[in-house]
Every structure is written in structure tokens, then in C-alpha cells.
Specification:
Elements lengths: L1 H9 L5 H9 L1 H11 L1 H28 L4 H31 L11 H26 L2 H32 L6 E3 L5 E4 H4 L7 H6 L37 E4 L1 E2 L16 H6 L1 E10 L8 E2 H4 L18 E5 L4 E4 L5 H4 L6
Parallel strand pairs: 4-6
Antiparallel strand pairs: 1-2, 3-5, 5-7, 7-8
Helix pairs in contact: 2-3, 2-5, 3-4, 4-5, 4-7, 5-6
């Protein structure tokens, strides 16, 4: 009679809903305690209970910090969720398999087949965890690289604006967008004028300032590689020439206007006025005819490859007159591009 009752208990069907619910905390904890001991089981249970929420928060933080586009967010999240459910399914399978096994008397030893079967399930759990971690970390690698490139681009722009101020300290005004000869014909751009302030004095002395930028003598410098004028995220700028992707805004309302020079306004005006922007289409660093016009810049961010644009996901770096660099995603630009003390 007793044997029949035991057999009936062992053959009783398992409630899958209850087994799945027990997986969340008690079932997972009991399985760990059975395999590793009570202390280690509770410790691992504590780690796992906060593991997945931490991964989700970390994933969202890294994605936002790297300014990934929407499709990268969705792909990353889909991969993470898929691997997460694969892990949950593997663990649920392990708990269910352990619950289905008949009780073994103390004097009996498990067979080799049973031991290898359970080891295979554990291996599947480990593979699921490793796959989930790979799915989480791989998208973050290119994101961190892009973040580093954007920071180097920002450092370049900040150094250029600081060179504007060094030029101002020596001449009493900011450099013009370009210089002209007696007949009003353009000679050299602002990039040539700031060479002594970006550690390029030797190159500056070799250029003939009284000849146009494209004269026979000055043309030999068109292929010069100046990293400070190149954005690491812009693949086109890594070729030569052209290889310059930074431009001032040229216009009567802007901080630069042809061969005219600007005096330094109030500090508040400097901190609110854009002096330098990025552009996707590179130009020759000595060219005086390709500066960005005020109206082109006012079209907006990433509206025109020859306007304010970049290959940074989600926005563009803009340097202001006080030397600060801000990453702008979308905003009204006309006011920030206007160099007017009354505003």
C-alpha cells in the first residue's frame, strides 16, 4: 500500500504555472542551494536578482550616452530581451527537469546518464548567460569609440577658438574670414592666420601671405595634413585633399564677415554666439571661397551636407565664442549664429 502511494505521488502531474512562478525566487534559490549549498545559494540568488535590472539600466545609459540612432536602440534591446528569455527558458527547463526526477534513496547512486543530462542543462544556462553578456557589450564597443572620436573633435574646435582669442590678444580683433589684397581679391583664410597659435609657426613662415592661397608657390601646401582641422568621425576628411571640416559662419549678421574684423563683445554675447561649426563636405584648408554662409547655416543641423552637419550620430559639435563646445541635436540656430550685442 505504501509503495503504491509513493508511486502515485511520484507520478502526480506537475503544475507548470506553479513551477514557473517558483522559478523567479524560491525555485531558483532552492536549485542553487541543492547544487552548491545554502550560503552560496543565497549569495548567488542575491546577485542574480539585481543582475538583469542592472544590465537593462546600463544598456539604456550607454546607448543614450553614445547618442545612438533609434534603430540601434531597438536592435540592441531586441537582442538583449531575446537572450534574456533564452536564459529564463534554460533555467526553467533545469528546475522542471529536477522536479520531474523521482526521489533517489540514499543508498542508490544516480546513473551516469542522469548526471550528464543535468550537466548539459547547466551548460546551456552558462552559454545563455555568456551570449547575453556578449549581446550587451558588443554594441557598446563602437559606441565608446564614437564617443572618443566626438570628444577629440570637440577638443579640436576648442583649440581653434582659443587660437582666435590668442590672435585677438596680439592684434586687437578677431581674425577675418579671409584677407584681401589692394584690389579686394581674397588671399588667405582664417586657418592660415591662426597657424602660429596652433603650433604651426614653421608652416606659417613658409606661406607667402602677399600671394593668393592658390598661387604656384602656395599650392604646394594644399596637401598639408593638419589634424586639428579634421574630425575623426568624418571618413572623407581622413583623405587628402580636401581634409578640413570646420568652418566659420560668413555673413553680415555672423561673427565673421568677409575681410572685416570683429571686436570682442561682452562675455555673455561670446557664450551665446557660435563661432565654429562642423560640415560633412570637406574643403581645402587654405580655400577662401568655401566658407559657410549665414543663410546656409540657418537651415538647421544635418539639413545640408555643406551646412552645419556631421557624422556624429544624433547631432553636431558647435564651438561658441567663449571657447565652450556643445553637442547640438536640434535647435533654432539663427539667434545663436547672430553676432549682435543688442541681442
Amino acid at each position: 500500500m505504501e509503495n503504491q502511494e509513493k508511486n502515485s505521488e511520484s507520478e502526480r502531474p506537475i503544475n507548470l504555472a506553479h513551477a514557473f512562478c517558483s522559478l523567479i525566487l524560491p525555485g531558483w534559490g532552492q536549485l542553487l542551494q541543492k547544487r552548491t549549498g545554502e550560503a552560496i545559494g543565497f549569495f548567488v540568488l542575491f546577485i542574480v536578482s539585481g543582475f538583469f535590472p542592472a544590465l537593462i539600466v546600463g544598456n539604456l545609459y550607454l546607448s543614450r550616452f553614445a547618442y545612438q540612432p533609434l534603430w540601434i536602440h531597438l536592435l540592441h534591446l531586441s537582442l538583449f530581451v531575446g537572450l534574456f528569455f533564452l536564459f529564463m527558458l534554460a533555467v526553467f527547463w533545469a528546475v522542471l527537469d529536477a522536479a520531474r526526477k523521482p526521489k533517489i534513496k540514499q543508498e542508490e547512486k544516480p546513473s551516469v546518464t542522469q548526471g550528464s543530462r543535468f550537466t548539459l542543462i547547466e551548460l546551456l544556462v552558462v552559454i545563455s548567460i555568456i551570449g547575453m553578456l556578449i549581446g550587451l557589450l558588443l554594441p557598446a564597443v563602437p559606441s565608446s569609440r564614437e564617443t572618443a572620436r566626438r570628444m577629440r573633435c570637440s577638443d579640436n574646435m576648442k583649440a581653434i577658438v582659443l587660437a582666435f582669442h590668442s590672435y585677438y590678444d596680439e592684434y586687437g580683433h578677431f581674425p577675418p574670414a579671409y584677407t584681401v589684397d589692394e584690389d579686394g581679391k581674397p588671399l588667405h583664410s582664417w586657418r592660415v592666420l591662426i597657424l602660429p597659435y596652433i603650433e604651426q609657426t614653421a608652416l606659417y613662415k613658409e606661406i607667402r601671405l602677399d600671394e593668393p592661397w592658390d598661387s604656384e608657390h602656395n599650392s604646394q601646401f594644399h596637401s598639408e595634413v593638419l589634424p586639428i582641422f579634421r574630425c575623426p568621425s568624418n571618413g572623407k576628411a581622413m583623405q587628402m585633399p580636401p581634409n578640413c571640416v570646420y568652418s566659420v559662419i560668413d555673413g553680415a549678421e555672423a561673427a565673421f564677415f568677409g575681410s572685416q574684423t570683429r571686436s570682442k563683445p561682452e562675455e555673455k554675447i561670446l557664450s551665446e554666439t557660435i563661432f565654429l561649426v562642423e560640415r560633412k563636405t570637406p574643403i581645402n584648408w587654405m580655400d577662401t571661397s568655401q566658407e559657410m554662409s549665414f543663410e546656409t547655416a540657418c537651415q538647421g543641423i544635418n539639413f545640408n551636407d555643406e551646412g552645419i552637419s556631421s557624422y556624429h550620430p544624433g547631432g553636431v559639435n558647435c564651438a561658441f565664442g567663449d571657447g565652450s563646445v556643445r553637442f547640438l541635436e536640434s535647435t533654432t540656430l539663427r539667434k545663436m549664429l547672430t553676432f549682435n550685442a543688442k541681442e
